[in-house]
Amino acid sequence: MKVAVFSTKPYDREFLAAANATAGHELVFFEPRLTPQTCRLVDDFPAVCAFVNDQLDASVLLPLSRQGVKLIALRSAGFNHVDLQAAEQLGMTVTRVPAYSPHGVAEHTVALMLALNRKIPRAYNRVREGNFALDGLLGFDFCGRTVGIIGTGKIGAVVARILAGFGCRVLAYDVGANPDVEAIGGKYVSTEELFAQSDIITLHCPLVPATYHVVNEEAIARMKRGVMLINTSRGALIDTQAVVRALKSGKIGYLGLDVYEEEAGLFFEDLSTRVIQDDVFSRMLTFPNVIITGHQAFFTRNALEAIAQETLANITAHERVQRPPGLITSEVVRA
Ligand code: NAD
Fold first, then answer.
1. Does ligand 1 have an atom closer than 6 angstroms to the CB of 281?
2. Second label for 231, Cα 20 to 30 Å away, from 257, 296, 301, 320?
3. Among 3.30.930.10, 3.40.50.720, 2.40.110.10, 3.90.550.10, what is the CATH number of 2-100+300-334?
4. Could you say which of 234, 261, 310, 318 is catalytic?
5. What is the mean pLDDT of residues 201-224?
6. Is 107 a catalytic residue?
């Protein structure tokens, strides 16, 4: 099948081309993000393959549909950026890669926690400059601390397991309990209790209307002073402006982000010679107790191989008029 593949970097092309050696689709790689402007590149393609910051609202889906696109094959697990109602009305199938490597994302989450606690970026720079002083590098033991996990699906459960291994007490909030988390001693509580009791709070739920700005002014007010907040899930789970105010007051003591609510147009690009126009993002970079990575939690060899294989499996199944394994159904949306 002829597929227009958007937001492709050299690593995407490498892994997709390798997986396509057996799948045999005609992949045409486009570097730009999918937007109302770039969707004009799609001419005579029955399928479009997209990533997390591609625009897939009605303003893009409608012209794609007019060009004959029948399949949107996402290379991500999250699908909050797709207007599924518009896709359904246009008779388009939407697929995703539900689980490619929960370990990669979970391990990056814990890497942010440890780097923040032990001030690894600062320590690294100091030692390179011959400064071996320890002032300002004081950390704490994770063992015995309380970690609150919001969203205990595939990734949240792995985070729970790793942190239980460190000797942390695990509190969890989810719309449904995960027996794997309970089996390692995790206790399900209300969000209010989780916010009030946790030394470290980490977000692993999807971005849906119910979770939009789940960390807002009111939630922050309930948290312990000096709490560590980590978000490797989706940017808009956090009200960033409220978090900046809490960093300034010292209420939030550490912030680790891999996602940002306005990341489209920033992340995945080399902007090192440009002036960043987003003042909220720039302000966050000035805090000594903030570490931001640019949506790289998924970025492991294992994940890229699995994403490429499963995306192409979805496309192959659609071409053969079979049910794609990563089909987004109303049950997936409700889950
Ligand atoms: P998952 O579907 O296995 O787990 C999500 C969990 O969130 C489920 O247990 C679900 O019940 C729970 N949930 C749903 N609504 C909720 C609500 N209102 N409140 C609390 N919990 C709720 O998904 P996953 O594979 O663990 O991925 C989690 C998220 O991680 C994805 O939605 C995606 O946004 C993000 N992600 C980020 C990266 C990255 O590179 N940074 C990579 C992959 C996934």
1. no
2. 301
3. 3.40.50.720
4. 234
5. 97
6. no
